[in-house]
């Protein structure tokens, strides 16, 4: 049995961590209005939050406005955004094309108990770009899209088991929220991880969930060979966000495709974030086509959205009138305002625009590599996204990713925030079409001052 990975001790991280109280005090001094709002939030939200992904110590920064790459917080400070609401705003905040489309649609009516032409426009754009998409259903979130995709796979195959990767997050659906961030004390052998619930309140995964290591073609083949007759779906991120925005090897994705073909399981790509990689999504970038794809974030242009797209025969299991069909209602599915914002965004994301933002993403990663040369820091990412990892381990899977020094990452993120730059508490970042060279150079200079002090 392989020994569980642990955070690797490194004296390089000690000076920043020794200044932890000072960094937090500076942040508090710059954000008194946010601190007051957070105290107010505690009176209505559990712990002050209604969205786990924005948790930040000692308190979050409340935002008031956004324009392009600039946000203004509740204290009137301007912050250069390098995460754009979890990568969902590729055109930046309040892009005029999106804002005008939304305003026009809202003036004409924001919701109907009926379809609108706008949903056809967005659906046609997506189906035209994704090799896997013959048909599509629009949902209200990426979590919902995963839920429906899994149900479609189970209905199509008549099987129950879902195979998912250790360290991958696929939203808050019961049969996907397993082994997202398992503790090394409970995650078992690296070749055959133990399914670990990632939330309280989950029913047992027995008979429904298999967990495999990310980016390990051999382990995936063995699991499918052993359990293939029970497997409904293999659920994979073609770029793993929480593991460090890493791309798996082509061998791994080909192995997943071949294994599913051999046993008749449905291969699902979760492209809720990865769709941002290119004009034809991550599947167009990696050259492997799944049977179904889950989407969200960028296809909504800043509004709540999700979608599941796939082969005609897979999607047919949701057709009205089909025996044993997968039902899928939703008051706000294909909401007219959302699809207007999504279509405006998608139409603006031409191949040339993708080439430009991906080129800038590559430049940022290259510069970060230079800044961190010789330091126990690894830079990962792809397309227009990047991740700074506080470890000297080359990250290829979850057990490599958890060697990072999370306290150092959180403090560096907080110090960058105080300097006027937003990345996640664990140093994920991305750019938008509104990001300028001045924004990038300012961010890189601030990061250099911290790591080279």
Q: TL;DR of this structure?
A:
It is built from 16 helices and 14 strands. By secondary structure, it is an alpha/beta fold.
Overview of the structural elements:
With 453 residues, the chain is an alpha/beta fold. The chain folds into two domains: 186 residues, Aspartate Aminotransferase, domain 1 (Alpha-Beta Complex), CATH 3.90.1150.10; 253 residues, 3-Layer(aba) Sandwich (Aspartate Aminotransferase, domain 2), CATH 3.40.640.10. 38% of the residues lie in helices and 13% in strands. The strands form three sheets. Strands 4-10-9-8-7-5-6 form a seven-stranded mixed β-sheet, with helices on both faces. A four-stranded mixed β-sheet has the order 1-2-3-13. It has a three-stranded antiparallel β-sheet with strand order 11-12-14, with helices on one face. A hairpin with a 4-residue loop joins strand 2 and strand 3.
């Amino acid at each position: 049995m392989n020994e569980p990975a642990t955070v690797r001790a490194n004296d390089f991280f000690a000076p920043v961590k020794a200044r932890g109280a000072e960094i937090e005090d500076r942040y508090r001094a710059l954000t008194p209005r946010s601190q007051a709002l957070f105290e107010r939030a505690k009176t209505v939200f559990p712990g002050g939050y209604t969205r786990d992904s924005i948790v930040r110590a000692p308190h979050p920064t409340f935002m008031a406005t956004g324009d392009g790459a600039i946000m203004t917080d509740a204290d009137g400070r301007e912050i250069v955004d390098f995460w754009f609401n979890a990568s969902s705003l590729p055109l930046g905040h309040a892009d005029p094309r999106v804002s005008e489309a939304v305003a026009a649609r809202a003036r004409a009516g924001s919701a109907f108990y009926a379809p609108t032409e706008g949903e056809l426009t967005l659906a046609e754009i997506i189906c035209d770009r994704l090799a896997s998409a013959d048909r599509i259903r629009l949902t209200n979130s990426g979590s919902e899209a995963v839920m429906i995709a899994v149900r479609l796979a189970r209905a199509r195959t008549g099987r129950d088991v879902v195979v998912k990767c250790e360290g991958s997050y696929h939203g808050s659906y019961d049969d996907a929220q397993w082994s997202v961030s398992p503790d090394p004390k409970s995650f078992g052998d690296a070749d055959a991880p133990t399914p670990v619930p990632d939330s309280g309140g989950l029913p047992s995964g027995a008979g429904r969930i298999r967990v495999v290591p990310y980016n390990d073609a051999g382990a995936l083949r063995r699991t499918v060979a052993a359990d293939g007759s029970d497997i409904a779906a293999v659920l994979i991120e073609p770029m793993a966000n929480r593991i460090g925005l890493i791309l798996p090897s082509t061998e791994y994705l080909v192995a997943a495709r071949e294994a599913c073909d051999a046993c008749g399981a449905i291969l699902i790509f979760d492209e809720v974030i990865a769709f941002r990689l290119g004009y034809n999504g991550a599947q167009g970038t990696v050259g492997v086509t799944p049977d179904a794809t889950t989407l969200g974030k960028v296809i909504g242009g800043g509004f709540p959205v999700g979608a599941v797209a796939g082969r005609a025969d897979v999607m047919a299991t949701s057709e009205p009138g089909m025996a044993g069909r997968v039902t899928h209602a939703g008051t706000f599915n294909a909401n007219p305002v959302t699809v207007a914002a999504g279509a405006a965004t998608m139409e603006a994301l031409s191949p040339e625009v993708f080439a430009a933002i991906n080129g800038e993403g590559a430049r940022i990663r290259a510069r970060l590599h230079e800044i961190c040369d010789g330091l126990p820091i690894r830079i990962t990412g792809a397309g227009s996204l990047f991740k700074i990892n506080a470890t000297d381990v080359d990250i290829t899977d979850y057990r490599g990713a958890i060697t990072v020094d999370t306290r150092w990452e959180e403090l560096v993120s907080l110090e960058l925030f105080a300097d006027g730059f937003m990345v996640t508490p664990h140093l994920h970042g991305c750019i938008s079409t509104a990001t300028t060279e001045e924004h990038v150079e300012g961010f890189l200079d601030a990061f250099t001052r911290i790591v080279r002090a």
